[in-house]
Amino acid sequence: MPESLPVVVVAAELVLLFAGAVLLWRHVLSPAARAQPAEVRLPAWELPVTDFAALLLAVMVTSTIVALAGTKLARTAGLAGDAVTVAGGAAAQLGMLGGYFLFHLVLNRHPLVPSPPELPRIGRRDLVAGAGVFLMALPLLVGTAKLWELMLHAAGLPAERQDLIRMFADAESPVTLAIMVALAVLIAPVTEELVFRAGLFRYLRTRLARRFALVAPALCFGALHVDWSTLRGLTSLAPLVVLAVIFSLAYERTGRIGTPIVAHALFNLNTVLLILGGVTD
User: What are the sequence ranges of the domains in the chain?
Assistant: First the structure.
């Protein structure tokens, strides 16, 4: 790795943080922005509770089955260590996506009721809005991450990064690295936004107090990225909860699932570049 690369990556990150702070002030925090009423474009999802339970069951069951199958196939193919973990993770994400579409196409018995909303069509509006959401989220996430890390240290809790971050940093095989990048930047944003935002948040937002509808899916999203047996990845919990709330607000404001998908993809891409650039370990 060139010695100047971390410096270039840090400089680029500082530019993104500055741009995000400017956008955050202009569109959210300034008196003019706060004086404008918040526009909500996301319609209610009038789905019976039994069908919502069927959606969750389809996602969990297919994710588990496909993850087990993917791990078994990887080991049968002679893979070991991180390669098996990557294969299992990719299979779990694809299984979640399969469960979502299984419900959407087969199990939903109410064709006149909007299903978990439109399939992800990424248009120019989503690219622009998603980039803006990503930039505005960056300063908030950096502040949250630093404060959360201080709290973990003060409480004597482990502050190790997620295993996935270590795997990116230690990846030696170009094939494994390419699969991990595709998983992080292409597959995970689509899968997790459809399940957590277009599924959980959209269903709960008209059935619970709004703050609980925002926080409950965000906690599930953050908890999914922590290894609770070892507490590895606990340092990412609070920033990811904040990120998930921001994505839900963006989805609610735009009514388009493509917006948080793009923001999520850019966030993951930014994280990958920080790791590969030697800034995050």
Answer: 1-30+118-281, 49-115
